[in-house]
Specification:
Helix 2 links the parallel strand 1 and strand 2. The protein is globular, with a radius of gyration of 21 Å. The model has no long low-confidence stretch (mean pLDDT 92). It has two domains: 191 residues, 3-Layer(aba) Sandwich (Rossmann fold), CATH 3.40.50.150; 107 residues, DNA polymerase, domain 1 (Orthogonal Bundle). It is of the alpha/beta class. It starts with 9 loop residues before the first helix and ends with a strand.
Length: 312
């Protein structure tokens, strides 16, 4: 069974990646392989495609989707943070384009059985990589109330984090919380009915997002990757990042600006003492958003933001 997913901002990503036959491109988050398949078409003949995903189902799907391409294709089941090791393993010094799509796939929401969706009655897992240790169930049933409140507020930007954390702790004293549906109902019960009625999103959206981020260490991995990504690009190689919430976008934006600036000296110094040079130029001075038509056809694209840099 193939992955269910519609690639977000596909034409824009392809345009900015500047895919060229015979060159090397990486999709760090394969998902449903929509972006991957489009990239492969553009780099024939002679190109090299490298695909990574920490979800084994995505890697298995990519093998099926991409097998018809007459290309050198390398697929890895792991987190994109390990791209430098994969390139070393392949004896590749640098690449011509890297795509990082930080969104969760429709397949993971609807078919993974891992509790990503508050609309499903599934085990409360939320691990992208099943080799990882801690699950969302572990966190929900073991973390102190103040720590739950902190992650809901910090990573989910949930204004009612305290109420939700308190309700979770009260409930788990009676019985351990095991399923996504159970957790979603607890969150809904913690939010006043008049408030949840006015909200444009489901009351559990931010709580589930926060748990997923913490379980998979998403922001930590993204920040580490962005810190060193310029060294993985050839001259004029490009990095395209699709983010879906403000915390991700903030990391991407700040890291790209730092790579473009280079110098880290305090503003008051008469001349640079750190000798750090600009490594990239930002191609998207204004963040790129999906079109109204795309959002109408694919609501999952509504919060997407695309930022791009080019190695100098």
């Amino acid at each position: 069974m193939l992955f269910k997913h519609i690639p977000v901002m596909l034409p824009q990503a392809l345009c900015y990646l500047n895919c060229t036959p015979g060159r090397i491109y990486v999709d760090c988050t394969l998902g449903g392989s929509g972006h991957a398949g489009a990239i492969c078409k553009k780099i024939i003949p002679g190109g090299i495609f490298i695909g990574i995903d920490q979800d084994i189902d995505a890697v298995r799907n990519a093998k099926k989707v991409l097998k018809s391409f007459n290309l050198t294709i390398h697929l890895f089941h792991d987190n994109f943070i390990h791209l430098p090791e994969f390139l070393q393993q392949l004896k590749i010094d640098a690449v011509d384009g890297i795509l990082l799509d930080l969104g969760i796939s429709l397949d993971q929401l609807e078919s993974s059985g891992r509790g990503f969706s508050f609309n499903k009655d599934e085990p409360l897992d939320m691990r992208m990589n099943l080799k990882s240790s801690a699950t969302a169930e572990d966190l929900i049933n073991s973390m102190a109330e103040k720590n739950l409140k902190e992650i809901f507020y910090k990573y989910g930007e949930e204004r009612r984090a305290g109420q939700i954390a308190k309700r979770i702790v009260t409930q788990r004293r009676r019985k351990a919380i095991r399923s996504s549906k159970e957790l979603a109902q607890i969150v809904c019960d913690a939010v006043p009915k008049n408030v949840s009625f006015k909200q444009k999103i489901h009351p559990a959206t931010r709580t589930f997002m926060a748990l997923r981020i913490v379980v998979n260490r998403e922001l930590e991995m993204l920040d580490l990757f962005m810190e060193n990504v310029a060294s993985l690009l050839n001259h004029k190689g490009r990095l395209c990042v699709l983010s879906f919430h403000s915390l991700e976008d903030r990391i991407v934006k700040h890291r790209m600006k730092a790579l473009e600036k280079g110098c880290i000296c305090p503003p008051g110094l008469p001349e640079c003492a750190c000798n750090k040079k600009p490594l990239v130029r930002i191609l998207t001075k204004k963040v790129v958003r999906p079109t109204k038509d795309e959002v109408a056809n694919n609501p999952m694209a509504r919060s997407a933001k695309l930022r791009v840099v080019e190695k100098i």
